[in-house]
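user: Please supply your own:

assistant:
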Amino acid sequence: MTEMESLYRPQGVEERWQRTWEEEGLYAADPDPSREPFVDAHPPPNVTGELHMGHALQLALGDTIVRLKRMQGYNVLFQPGYDHAGISTQNAVEKALAAEGTSRQELGREAFEQRVWEWLRLYGGKIMTQFRRMGASLDYRRERFTMDEAYVRAVMRFFVHLYEKGWIYRDNRIINWCPYHQTSLSDLELVDAEVEDTLSTIRYPLADGSGHVAIATVRPATIPADVAVAVHPDDERYRHLIGREAIVPFVERRVPIIADERVEPAFGTGALKVTPGHDATDFAIGRDHGLPEPAVIGPDGRMNDTVPELAGLTQEEAAQRILDWCRERGLLAKQERYRHAVPLCERCETRIEPLVSLQWWCRMDELKRAALAALRERRVVFHPESQHRFAIASLEEAPDWNISRQIWWGHQLPIWYCPDGHVTCAETEPDACAECGSSELTRETDVLDTWFSSALWPFATLGWPDETEDLEAFYPGHLQTTAREIIRLWENRMIFAGLELLGEVPFRDVIIHSTVLAPDGRRMSKSLGTGIDPLEVIERYGADATRYGLLKISSAQDVRFSYNAIEEGRRLANKLWNASRLLLQAAGAEVDLRPRELEERWILARIDATRAEVERLLGEYDFAHAVDALYHLTFDDFCDWYLEATKPRLYAKDADAMATALAALERLLKLLHPVMPHVTEEIWSHLPDRETRLIVAPWPEPDERFAADADALVRVQEAAERFRRSGVLTPLAGDEKRIFEAVVRPDRVKANGNVEAERARLRAEVERAERMLANERFVEKAPPEVVQAEREKLERYRRELEAIGG
């Protein structure tokens, strides 16, 4: 047993234990049929990413659970790794190439891919080092990457499986196109931004010369791609025009006027220009009405050569030419400012261009059916319940999945074409066309959406498609922690992939954690200057305090970051450190439960009651209340009451008191360890006769021997609170008086309490509470917990009044 330092310095302690745990293999998970597994296949971060506050909260939640399970004897697998982040990684490497005066096009695909690997060796993967700074007990030996050779094989197997079932197809459909990255994106890879645009109302002449129909648009540049005018079938203003023709300005093309219920009569003039090539709603209308799908905007976001006089112009330049043309002919009715939301690429913030493009798609109707059943039957449960409902709704509404991306970094589709246009799909490169036998094969250039490979994470990391020991031992898993925006992108896809390929759900519970906002309520963002670097918080306060503070604020779905919560965690760590140091200096070398006095039985009862409460709360994934319970047990019960009450016996070298105090501390450290692993492990290492690290020490078993004394200090604590508030001394005797005097030390306080004033105050509180509870409307209408709280207050006021002779 070595002496503890006088001051707790978290940085050195935390880094030392992070190294020790890993070096000693205490994070390790190996197949062991004799032990029940617990698996958290932690969401793989972007290989080029850095730790942000969402990651930090996610790790705090997940690591708290896996540390608890590890202490409870489970064979815990906390799976680390990265996804290849196709677009983000390619973008980063292309920026580096541009700085060198070259480009991926100049390098060619094979050389570019090699450059990406070189770049990743230099700059990729540093987030896993940052995960370690949070104290995340992932089994880092098992680090996986979605571009590893074995993982790529799993991705190819999944694609071929779906293709052979007829669930993968190619089609020209409207997609979200990023002109900067030159690739399609899913709806879930976009962010909305409020912009100020000009809403122009333009008259479309009727083809028979009898008048015009006015249409409002914020995108005049797309007018040359109009193929119809649509009105709502119930709109009396336009019913007489249905079936007639209008003339599209600038290109002067005759188009039909059609009726469709998707038109919003309240927007603009109530008439809609239908441009299937450049709007998702218009595309759906066009498909239903059999309309053509011309495009006038190219992949670079500029005008194409469909209209020669506009070719190569920006959309703004083209819009101005079209508006000038309309103005000269009296067709521009009016213009007004219009504020609305437009989608941007979440990575580069370029305005998204809806384009019709030939893409690869995955049918969702059959694939999602089993996953929906699993969610409805609650074989997988999202927490909180609102997110479970959202998971079901989002899967019910899931359209066919655009799985192809027009970039080079990623999993190239296992599709080959022969000169006759035949398609061959195979896991590995085929020697010949499967249909005609031609050996002249060209591979599809598109790569798969990154989320296609991430859908396999819970089992591809375990060796699937091979039947490995790991797969048998650790699949299906148990827990996922993630953000709500990932539900559709990843969680639902893992569920249907696991069911389709292995016949079992990949996990049972999904914790959807809070979105951590800046302290002022805005979203955290580097560009807005509202971001907070968790590594800076760790450097200032320590990882334990950071973990504690994040868990403390995790009770709602949108929470403001709070330095006060982090500071509370630091105070708790320091309080525990100082109390443990005092105890270790005063106590002996025995750790044994030999309680004789009331305060000893009371603290052991409180520790066991809190153990049960923490088990229940963490079982419900209620982290905020769990850390609150631990705070009060440590700060109030153990340090402020138990230690103060037992100090005289410790200083007197009472062997039973010393042994019992160390045994109580031992149990307290175990309860705190999942939340604050470093300070607890350090204190544990100073306890006598340690045979194991705290990280793998057994979680305390239920112990009801002292349960009868759980409320033994209620009268004393209420007397102390009353004395501190009013100076009034409550008549106490025996153990109660001894404990009160040891903790409160009334002899050191100059108090002149007014007993009658305190009695009057308590009588008034009793009368108020009685009136509240006599009010039937209050009892019936108020939330049950509010009514119960009022009953408990009344009981306490009566008890306090009786204690001072009232």
In short: The chain has a mean pLDDT of 93. DSSP finds 27 helices and 25 strands in the chain. The two ends are 53 Å apart (CA to CA).
